[in-house]
Amino acid sequence: MFDNTNPYTLRTEVVGGITRYYVAFMDGQAVLRETEVPRPVYLEFLRFVKVERNFRRSDERHIEQSELTDETLYNRATHPPKSVEETAFDSLQNERLRKAIAELSEVQRRRFVLYHEFGLTHEQIAKMEDCTFQAVAKSVKAAESVIKILFK
After folding, report:
1. What's the confidence (pLDDT) of residue 2?
2. Which class would CATH give 84-151?
3. 55 pLDDT band (50/70/90 cuts)?
4. Lowest-pLDDT range, 2-6, 24-28, 105-109, 128-132?
């Protein structure tokens, strides 16, 4: 991607009917330097500015088209973006769910998150916590019941 910062500035000055051409730039120590240049060099800098500008515009025009692959078009068609209302509703629901999970006891919260967020089975959680499968299943079921009640 093209960097919009211009490393130099150009200016002209008319003194006694004679046009002088200047190029200003920052040197390696970040000190602004300005030097007088002959007209052909100044015109070459101007040409370069136009080429840069055209390149930037071309890049901006083609950036969207470069992202239109078959896969992205398929994804757009099969998974249209959510509306603002849907996004806001989902955000509110997620906030309610976070609050409901926070209301659970430490054990229920941990087991609920391991089961639903991390996709672990009851057996895997029981092995991690050195308890029975039934204890984990009962704890997750109780957590789900509390969350359902809080959502109503």
Report:
1. 37
2. mainly alpha
3. confident
4. 2-6
Provide CB contacts within 8 A for 99, sequence distance 6+: 150
Tell me how far apart the alpha carbons of residues 103 and 109 are, in angstroms, rounded to a whole number.
Answer: 8
Ordered DSSP codes for the chain: ------SEEEEEEEETTEEEEEEEEE-TTS-EEEEEE-HHHHHHHHHHHHHHHHHHHHHHHHHHHHT--HHHHHHHHHSPPPPHHHHHHHHHHHHHHHHHHHTS-HHHHHHHHHHHTS---HHHHHHHHTS-HHHHHHHHHHHHHHHHHHH-
Instruction: Write down the domain spans for the chain.
Output: 8-66, 84-151
- Does 4 score more than 60 pLDDT? no
Distances in Å between the Cα of 131 and the Cα atoms of 13, 101, 126, 134, 141 are 85, 22, 5, 9, 16
List, in order, residues 6 or more apart from 107 with CB less than 8 Å away.
Answer: 139
- The whole-angstrom separation of Cα 88 and Cα 107 is 31
